[in-house]
Amino acid sequence: MPNPRWLARANRVWINPVARRVSTWMPGLGVIVHRGRVSGSLYRTPVNVFPRGDSFVIALTYGQDADWVKNVLAAQGCVLLTRRREIALGTPRIYRDETRGDMPAVVRAILRVINVEHFLRLTPPER
């Protein structure tokens, strides 16, 4: 079960403004830059993100119905700011993994406790 919506609202108001400042350089964190489906506004959403092979995987702690996820799916991609790099990503794919195998052991344990089983995989375009 993803985190409750009230927690998402609290994060948006209090935690995200701080998280956006450190998420672009701390390991395991990043900022997804995406456009609103309706408004066309540019948004920056802090996420936990982990490189896996040629892809990046994000645990969907607020579920697959979060607005930022819908925006990335509708646009078929986004930009990821992580480790002081800007990476264009596409081919978004949501998948379910009860083992949480793409996550580091500590993160896997936390996701198990909060019952997160859905993930978003994004891949840089071929060069």
UniProtKB/TrEMBL annotation:
- Show the InterPro entries listed in the entry: F420H2_quin_Rdtase (IPR004378), Split_barrel_FMN-bd (IPR012349)
Under Gene3D superfamilies, the record lists: Electron Transport, Fmn-binding Protein, Chain A
The molecular function terms of the Gene Ontology recorded here are:
oxidoreductase activity
Q: Which domain of life is it from?
A: Bacteria
Q: What is this protein called?
A: Nitroreductase family deazaflavin-dependent oxidoreductase
What organism is this sequence from? Phytoactinopolyspora alkaliphila
